[in-house]
Every structure is written in structure tokens, then in C-alpha cells.
Amino acid sequence: MSSFCGQLNEYKNIAIDRFDGKNLQCSAFFLSHCHSDHMVGLKSIPFLKHLQSSKDVYLYCSKVTKILLLADEECRPLEKYMQILEIGLANLVKVPSTNHSEEYYVNVTLIPAGHCPGSVMFLFEGKDGTALYTGDFCWEVGQASKVLAFQSEKSLKKIDSVYVDTTFCIAEAYNIPSRSECVDLTIPIVSDWLSLSSSHVVVIICPAKYGYEYLFKKLAQQLDTKVHVPDWKVDIYDQIPDLAGYFTSDPLLSRIHACKFYTQKLSRSTLPCSPTAHDSKQYQVLNIKPSTMWFTAQKKSSTSQGHVGVTAVNPKGLNRICYTMHSSYREIRDLISFLQPKSVLPSVLPFSDECWDIVQERLKSFLSFPNKERNKFIQTVTTNNVLGTLRKIKSSALKPNQHHSDDFDDLFNNDEL
């Protein structure tokens, strides 16, 4: 659950993932993704009135996030004030003046965060420094080294601050199975159950409205079926090329159901989508709940080294699978140790930490952790710079028509330079 206040130390008048209180004095707003803890105040009358009464004040987000927002009737009045920013490009954004400051411009790069459809990080670059806001993210170790937005022409960018998702920045979640590992174990469980008879069905109980699409898509692909979701979700997914075609709104056309994003009562014989009266069929239901928090909570009382399990079954017939939407301790450490920012600030208080100072000290320790990918990158850049200097020396030293050895030529004929 995000506790981010909404504002950066570097750039005033910018509010991110928080749209109430003092943030209503800002003149540029950003939404990283569509989960309720990052949308506080977004649907409020005061926020809408602030947009309506201000010139050139917009809500910036990714294209997919806009699609998800506009599917919510309460968010549709915001449409004329929403601006889509391209992912992977430095978008020049105007931050209009307020009663307390002049207008200015800042470059904002959206970086895929891997948390849920449309989720992004925001990299802000301008006269007041460089700041990264991760929002909620789910990256693997080594992924930061592949992000071009973190690289300048000849080095890594110097980051002043990183505002980072610390949901699982705890020892209990040192290592969390990847989504692909989760899917690899889930597919045979589902396949074996469905093969027993036509009355055997699977119900996937999702704690959040969005974020499980990777699992749904893989199940649909591997089992050659569609996943049943509500009508309004099919309408959304059909607008997203990567998800279109894998879902149905007809409960009788699928035996995999993700039609309720949350349900308290488990049933082994009925579907949560309440089939019509003419469907009197008795079902054999396999209930599956994807999450990570339950698994990490079990580790709190365990003596293991924070390696989270993948599956578990309780006596009531609920099959839990460890499906993560947040990075683990190890993955957070990898991001911070690679970027080496001047400061790093947590946006979530982990469930097993008693105060912010604990997670802050943990993040601080990551700055001194050796990162192999960072060292490799710096070494490569240094080598290329040295070779570039030698090339210049060679060019200036050779006179016209002067012959030189093939060996010397070979030293500089590197297509990668």
C-alpha cells in the first residue's frame, strides 16, 4: 500500500499518484498506474474543479492507463484533461506557473514498470536535477542495466533521487519466484484439473482489479481457450493489442473464470459469475488465488532465508500460487545499487517493518552493494573511451598516403565503436 505523499523534493508543482490536500496546489499531475492506492483523490470533485479552473494543467499517463481510467465512469470527466506520454522517449512537459513559482519545463521519460497493464516509472530530468519515481514495479535482477533511459552518451546518468516501491524490501521476500516460474507450475495444475471432466472448472480469485493479465494470457495460450471475465473487462482488453482475443464475457464458453476480482466465499460447486437459471450443471471447482503477501507472511515465522515458495493448498480447497506484482528485496537492491543515486526514499512501509527508519537504512545499505552489471557497464564505457582517444591519436599522427600495418588497422576496426 503506497504511502507516497505525491511530491518530489526536486520538482515543485508536480504531483504523482496523489490528488488531494496540498497536491491540489500543483500544476502538473502524473499517474503511474490504475490501482486505488495510487489514485487517492483522482475521482474527487476538488481535483476535477482544479483542472477545470486552471490553464494548461493536465494529468499525464501512459496510453494503456488512460484506457483503464476511462473504463471507470467516475473518471470520464477527466478525459479532456488527460495527456498521453510516449513510453521510452523524453517527453518535454510544461509545468505551468502558480502563485508561488514561475512556469518551467521538464523532460519526462516513461519506463515500463511491469506491475500491471499500463504501469510506468517516471524519470524527471531538468534544471533541478534527475529524479526517478518507480511507482509500483516488478523487475528482475539485471533489468536496470538494459534501460536506455538510464544511460547517457558515454556513461550512466547521475540520479539525484530515487523514490522506490519497497513493498517487499524485507528479508522474508529476499527472493520471489518470477511470473514465468509461477505460470510454469500453474498450467499443469489447471490442465490436469480440466482434463478430469467437462464439469471441472477453475476459478481464479484476484485480490486486485488489474495485474494478473500475464497469467490469464499464458493460460489461454497454453490451454487453447479463453478466460471468462466481465463484459467491461473484455471491452478494455480488446483495446490493448497484447491482450485482445484471449478473453470472453460468456461464462458458458470457458472453464477458466476470473470474473470476480475479489470474493470472500469459496465454493467447490458453483461459479462466482452466477450462471443463468437454465444452466443447472453441477460443477467441480478448483479455486486458485494468486498473490505474494500470504507467502511472505509465512516466511516471517520461518527460519528459511527468504526464498518464497510457489504453491500451497489449504484445507478449504484454496490453491494459492505465488504470483508477484512487486520486486523482491534482491531485485530492489539490484536497481538501487546499479543506479547509485545520491538519495533513495521508500514509498511503502513493508508489513514487517515497524517504522520508516528501518527501511530507509536498508535502502541506504544498497548504495554500497557491489553491482556487477554497473561495473561491467562502466568498464565497457571506459574501454570505448580509451579506444576512441587512440583512434584520434592515430588519425592525427598519420600523414596523407602514409602506410601503416594491418595489425594497427585491426585494432580499430570494431563495428561496436
From TrEMBL:
GO MF annotation: an example: endonuclease activity
Query: What InterPro entries does the record point to?
Result: DRMBL, RibonucZ/Hydroxyglut_hydro
Task: Tell me which domain of life the UniProt entry assigns to the organism this sequence originates from.
Answer: Eukaryota
Q: Indicate the segments forming the DNA repair metallo-beta-lactamase domain, all copies.
A: 243-349
Q: Name one GO biological process term.
A: double-strand break repair via nonhomologous end joining
User: Chief subcellular site?
Assistant: nucleus
Location comes to: Nucleus
- Keywords tagged on the record: DNA damage, DNA recombination, DNA repair, Endonuclease, Exonuclease, Hydrolase, Nuclease, Nucleus
The record ties this protein, via Gene3D superfamilies, to: 3.40.50.12650, Ribonuclease Z/Hydroxyacylglutathione hydrolase-like (3.60.15.10)
GO CC annotation terms, alphabetical = nucleus
Which family would the database say this protein is a member of? Belongs to the DNA repair metallo-beta-lactamase (DRMBL) family.
User: What protein name does the entry list?
Assistant: Protein artemis
Species name for this entry?
Biomphalaria glabrata
